[in-house]
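Weekly sync, protein design subgroup
Attendees: M.S., D.O., the rotation student, P.L. (late)

Item 1: inverse folding check
M.S. brought a backbone from last month's batch and wanted to see whether the design step gives back something sensible before we order anything. D.O. pointed out we never logged the input encoding, so this time it goes straight into the notes. Structure tokens as presented (301 positions):
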């Protein structure tokens, strides 16, 4: 009777066959994972092999040059730092505020549902689409003689803000949603109003997740080349931007420029630039993990 029931639901009662199928699927998934890991290891080894001999202090502190032995990435490095700071300045307040509204204030109706679906869909839009959107709005529309924007830092920061804003909103919403409702009810029982509950109870508890999501979103923005190329074009910059309305370049663009050069030495320079970019990304990810663990342990106390 039970075997007939299992047969109708699609579960094979043959235990040996299930073990064989389970082991086969496990091996298939393991091999699929190993393919990605081995491919990544080969790429990293190739980059380290070509880039480490060129990685020195002169490479970090010098400006780009037409001679490989004199070339550096200081202008691209400082442009990346500038761009990340301004992107965070635009993204974090808007993203966290939108998450608070959607989780704590927005009514559960059709309009809110449409907004949530669109935010989720925007997180998966290819980055080049945001680059073309930013070029159309911030460069061409606001870059006329009557406006103040052009192919400058603030235009790139606004474009990258559009790119990572859905990620920050989703990460912040998940962190706010993870706060137990009993915390809110306890604060209400003590006479706090809604904003006091959010400011004093919800945000401190959700802060580790919000911070982690924000740093990871900034990490993605650092490695994006397509939207920044659409904004800045492939320019040869040998100075550091002094304010948000100057031209700029970033590490992915500088690496792309070196790879496009015919000399082999420039490809080695590109490998060294990739190492610097990877160090920045890994550092930001490590900071996200450390801060998350630190504030989670503090909130649990």
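Designed sequence read out in the meeting:
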């Amino acid at each position: 009777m039970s075997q007939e029931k299992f047969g109708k639901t699609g579960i094979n009662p043959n235990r040996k066959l299930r073990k064989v199928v389970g082991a086969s699927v496990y091996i298939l998934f393991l091999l699929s994972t190993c393919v990605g890991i081995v491919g990544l290891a080969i790429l990293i080894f190739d980059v380290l092999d070509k880039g480490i001999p060129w990685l020195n202090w002169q490479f970090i502190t010098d400006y780009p040059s037409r001679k490989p032995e004199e070339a550096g990435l200081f202008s691209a490095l400082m442009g990346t730092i500038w761009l990340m700071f301004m992107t965070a300045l635009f993204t974090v307040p808007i993203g966290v505020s939108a998450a608070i509204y959607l989780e704590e204030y927005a009514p559960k109706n059709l309009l809110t549902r449409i907004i949530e679906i669109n935010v989720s869909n925007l997180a998966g839009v290819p980055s080049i689409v945001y680059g073309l959107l930013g070029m159309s709005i911030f460069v061409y529309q606001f870059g006329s003689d009557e406006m103040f924007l052009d192919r400058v830092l603030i235009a790139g920061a606004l474009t990258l803000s559009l790119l990572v804003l859905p990620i920050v909103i989703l990460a912040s919403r998940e962190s706010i949603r993870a706060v137990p409702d009993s915390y809110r009810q306890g604060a209400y029982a003590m006479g706090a109003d809604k904003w006091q509950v959010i400011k004093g109870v919800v945000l401190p508890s959700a802060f580790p997740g919000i911070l982690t999501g924000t740093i990871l979103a900034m990490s993605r923005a650092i490695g994006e080349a397509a939207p920044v190329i659409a904004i800045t074009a492939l320019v040869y910059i040998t100075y550091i931007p002094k304010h948000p309305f100057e031209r700029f370049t970033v590490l992915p663009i500088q690496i792309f420029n070196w790879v496009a050069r015919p000399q082999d030495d420039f490809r080695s320079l590109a490998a060294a630039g990739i190492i610097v970019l990877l160090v920045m990304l890994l550092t930001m990810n490590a900071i996200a993990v450390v801060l998350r663990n630190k504030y989670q342990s503090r909130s649990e106390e």
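Discussion: The radius of gyration is 25 Å. The chain has two domains: 2-54, 57-300.
Action: P.L. to compare against the previous round before Friday.
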